[in-house]
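Notebook entry, structure prediction.
Reason for the run: the old model in the group folder had no record of what sequence produced it. Starting over properly, with the input documented here first.
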Amino acid sequence: MTKPRTFPGWEIIEGAGGGYIAIRRVLVPSAGGLSNVRCGATLAELHRHLEEETRRRTPRPRQTVAPPFSESPAEIES
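New structure, fully documented this time:
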């Protein structure tokens, strides 16, 4: 077996029926859009999946959005 690359926070094991499984050491809430388990038929495929997961976790720069313009009732009546 080729030694798998290490991904901080993940444990990589061989699947019982073949392939590889990565299990997050500290579970994250499912509502956050991140996975706790990733699988791949080969180590290369699993590594790609874990790299995707890492990119999803990297915070994106926030865009500033101006609040919608609202008129006061006095302005609407005039």
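Summary: The CA atoms of residues 49 and 55 lie 10 Å apart.
The old model has been moved to the deprecated folder.
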